[in-house]
Design goal:
Blueprint: H1 8-22, H2 29-52, H3 60-83, H4 88-111, H5 116-141, H6 146-153, H7 157-172, H8 174-187, H9 192-200, H10 204-214, H11 225-238, H12 247-259, H13 263-270, H14 275-282, H15 288-291, H16 294-312
Helix pairs in contact: 1-2, 1-3, 2-3, 3-4, 4-5, 5-6, 8-10, 8-11, 12-16, 13-16
């Protein structure tokens, strides 16, 4: 059964399109075309495999993550092979092994529902392990020299790009970097499930920066605390103000739903609820705002109204 909302062909085309603008200037045009084609082909193959496998229960987001891992690492490691002087006929077998290893490692990590940071680290470690083993294997076969192997293993396009990106950001957006570093310091001390929820809501490029800085030992001792506090204050100011809840409107809406419901329906809906909720419905003198905050009242009212409407839509249970 196909994964709902997962169009792997469009995703592959988009990742290849993004790569066009990112290929370094020192890469010749024929090699640039090779990289773009490689990304598109690998992403289509992996995306189709995920989409067509009846045993995989991933959603579109999870399938996209795995495909993106393959596309991104295909981009970086093919550049490392080209810059390292590895002959064209040896590149495809290496890249195929890498793509398969990434696919399996990322798939297993997502099945286990590991935190984002751990998934990123596992995939990166697997890439380095397989890449190094393949290069050393060619040395042993006499296909490349030890000097060529050393040269290619010293290449790291992903680190070069990260360094350049950080230099640009540092030059033009120091405030943003400080905010991300401040977030990294806070997230280091938070439970994993909350960290994941926050990271999932951020830009992927920012997520990588934050995760990298969460790994920095004693990060909190390397930055002036007053600067961190100022950055956190800026973040708070940029967040939207919580929506004001009109308590009177909430109560009118709920009272209307209750008044249109039969007593036996109301009883059936709230019989398993806590005493405060029952009193809230039945006792006109119940001190609502002393017991519930406006946000709690909104949640409870929406919940009860939905339950009442659901129950009324089941005539066989409402006799």
């Amino acid at each position: 059964m196909a994964i709902a909302g997962f169009n792997y062909k469009e995703l592959a085309a988009e990742l290849a399109k993004q790569a066009v603008a990112l290929v370094p200037e020192d890469i010749p045009m024929p090699e640039k075309k090779y990289i773009i084609t490689l990304i598109n082909n690998f992403c289509i193959i992996s995306g189709k495999s995920l989409n067509d496998d009846p045993n995989i229960k991933f959603d579109a987001s999870q399938a996209t993550i795995i495909t993106q891992f393959i596309g991104e690492w295909a981009f970086h490691k093919s550049i490392d092979l080209i810059r390292g002087g590895i002959p064209p006929q040896l590149r495809d077998p290496i890249m195929q092994k890498l793509a398969f290893a990434i696919f399996e490692e990322a798939k297993l990590a997502l099945i286990k529902k590991l935190p984002d940071e751990q998934v990123v680290n596992l995939v990166e470690n697997k890439v380095n392990q397989v890449f190094g083993a393949e290069i050393q294997g060619y040395v042993q076969k006499g296909a490349i020299t030890p000097e060529q192997a050393q040269n290619v293993l010293q290449q790291s396009n992903i680190d070069s790009m990260a360094q350049k990106e950080n230099e640009v950001v540092a030059k033009f957006s120091n405030k943003k970097i400080l905010k991300l570093v401040a977030m990294a310091m806070i997230l280091k001390k938070m439970p994993q499930e909350k960290v994941k929820a926050i990271l999932d809501s951020l830009d992927p490029h920012d997520v990588k920066f934050i995760i990298d800085h969460m790994k920095v030992e004693n990060l909190e001792n390397k930055i002036d605390k007053s600067i961190v506090l100022e950055s956190l204050y800026d973040i708070r100011r940029e967040l939207p103000e919580p929506k004001e809840i009109n308590v009177e409107k909430v109560m009118r809406k709920l009272n209307r739903a209750v008044s249109l419901s039969k007593p036996q329906v109301i009883e059936a809906v709230i019989k398993q609820e806590r005493s405060n909720v029952k009193n809230f419905i039945y006792d006109q003198k119940f001190p609502t705002l002393s017991v519930f905050t406006p946000s709690m009242l909104q949640i409870i009212s929406d919940y009860l109204e939905e339950k009442l409407n659901d129950y009324k839509e089941k005539p066989s249970e409402n006799k």
